[in-house]
Amino acid sequence: MRIDQSLLEHLQTWVGRQETLTDQITSAPIRGLSATLDRDDGEPVYGQTRLPELWHWIYFLSAHRQSQIGPDGHAKRGGFLPPVPLPRRMWAGGRVKWLESIRAGDRVKRVSTIKSVTHKVGRTGDLIFVLVEHQIHNPESLVLVEEQDIVYRDNPSPDEKPVAPTEAPADAVWTKSLRPDEVLLFRYSALTFNGHRIHYDRRYVTEVEKYPGLVVHGPLIATLLIDLVRERVPSAELVEYQFKAIRPVFDLAPMTVNGRPAQDGKTVELWASDGDGYLAMKATAKMR
């Protein structure tokens, strides 16, 4: 469909809209994600165990009633997020700053704000970009600021040609291969209460959205990249992280996560590549 000016102006009335959620950093999600990432982190201790970077994504889960779920498994549009009438939705990238550590047992509050709604016309047609800011507070102070880039686009046309892929860098210092199988994708969907069918419903993802296989969650890939830093620098404590999705990764072949530390000892360039060696995500992590 075509996004005209009147529709865009309607969607932009969502700018400034806010949502506030509260939660507690309880043990069960931490244990679940540790197991999903094949880690042996031990039992979290309230007040002591620092929540690993990006693991805040397993909290503040929106519990939409079943009657509020749309055909793609997401909540029907028009609540906090604007009702963009383009069928494909993806988390295209983001930026995170950690001001203080989040610890197991903390009671936390997240204030989310729609910062902008913009329209672009790309090679495949209309695109709507929604920028969402999240601020997370503990009872004493602001501890984390995050921006998420959400993009909406139309389903592919029968004659649409795929975007030419980019070869992943070949100069990784750290690299790890893994197979993003159905169980891994299901477990991460469950931990994040993500009902999006592209991650677990093979008939839907291949017949409706026309992908060749189950789509690996962008946030999962971003988390796997940071987990590589945790493995290679166990004492690492991040202050900034930014990532951008380049190309979808599917469950059809192994993928790799890669890193290249900078000479300053505090910055790491990170990237993920798919089974064909093409660049899927790039990121930069900065440590204290």
> What class, by secondary structure content?
alpha+beta
Mean residue pLDDT: 94
As a percent range, the share of strand residues is 25-35%
At the fold tier of CATH, the topology name is Thiol Ester Dehydrase, Chain A
Q: What's the CATH first level?
A: Alpha Beta
The helicity comes to 10-25%
Write the layout of secondary structure elements.
Elements: H1 5-11, E1 18-24, H2 27-36, E2 88-98, E3 107-122, E4 125-137, E5 142-153, E6 174-178, H3 182-191, H4 202-207, H5 218-232, E7 238-245, E8 255-261, E9 267-273, E10 279-287
Antiparallel strand pairs: 1-3, 2-5, 2-7, 3-4, 4-5, 6-8, 7-10, 8-9, 9-10
Helix pairs in contact: 2-3
Q: What do you see in this structure?
A:
This protein has helices spanning 5-11, 27-36, 182-191, 202-207, 218-232, and strands at residues 18-24, 88-98, 107-122, 125-137, 142-153, 174-178, 238-245, 255-261, 267-273, 279-287. The protein is built from 5 helices and 10 strands. By secondary structure, the protein is of the alpha+beta class. A hairpin with a 4-residue loop joins strand 4 and strand 5. The chain has one domain (5-287): Thiol Ester Dehydrase, Chain A (Roll), CATH 3.10.129.10. Helix 2 (27-36) runs antiparallel to helix 3 (182-191).
